[in-house]
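Reopening this one. Same input as before:
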Amino acid sequence: MKYITFAVPCYNSENYMRRCVDTLLEGGRDVEIILVNDGSTDRTAEIADEYQLKYPDIVRAVHKENGGHGSGVNKGLELARGIYYKVVDSDDWLDREAYLKLLKKIKDFCADGNRDSGQKIPDLFVCNYVYDHLDEGKSRVMDYRNIFPKEEMCTWNDIGRFKPSQYLIMHSLMFRTDVLRRSGVKLPEHTFYVDNLFSYQPLPYVESICYMDLDLYHYYLGREDQSVNEKVLMKRIDQQIRVTDLVAKSVDLQAVKEKYPKLAVYMTRNISVMLSISSIHLLLIRTAEAEQKRKDMWNSIKAYNAALYYRLRYSTLSGLTYLPGKLGGKLTVGGYRFARKIYQFQ
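Same output, byte for byte:
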């Protein structure tokens, strides 16, 4: 039995993928690791094949034409045999101690005795993640202690309130594989920032959650070509806008509200966060074309769901990133710079 499938989308990752894969191997034969070589032009394919040859019961190397990060996630989900599915980017890694504790918890839930007694296993595990500025020797842990009870099964109706700096991202989540498949989530190819869709669309399909207060995932920050780098994000702003639009239209929030009102509040706020990021970076571009894109982005939300538009337009978060005039733009950018410094997210 494979308890976890790890999918590792790799594109020209020869310089750092070994650090990632070596941490995943700590799970032994209880896990499978799918290395998805996304049309790399360096030694990534060779390294993936080396791991498969050395660890045939654990590692599978998959080679495909370049389709982008989302394509790698889709391929991994298509092939996954594990009870749970976790995406780990090739420049990131897992903490060994936290990883082994999480794996033991999963095995305990799946034990024959528990299954015979009718105990269900969680649809979703949530763990902490670490913003790791490895080259600068700085890090910041993002936890969920105020939101979920520790190591207990709960539902969306049992959660607390998210702080402004807290949201559920791909790095903190590990869904049951069948939940992801039932949700129908499929990420667009050749598009950055699709992890936002992956960590949003399946949430209403989750009926039970288990939070482990473990600093599991190390999210490496520092490479100049990273998609979260400010200059890179500005260059790829059209893709950020596209994903924001896909996220906003992927779930019927009214239906979610009827079943899980607290989850609906969070999901609405998540769209607000994405709109804010797009709005701010369009402001940073400082062109008439960018300003028009900013207006079009908001008008698309309005055309799709007018009620949602007005909730977002006049919310504390996204509303403050759509302030009128030059002064409004300066206030927005200034607030963003301050938040980035405090939370070290870029």
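So the earlier flakiness isn't reproducible anymore. For the record, Residues 84 and 176 are 4 Å apart (CA to CA).
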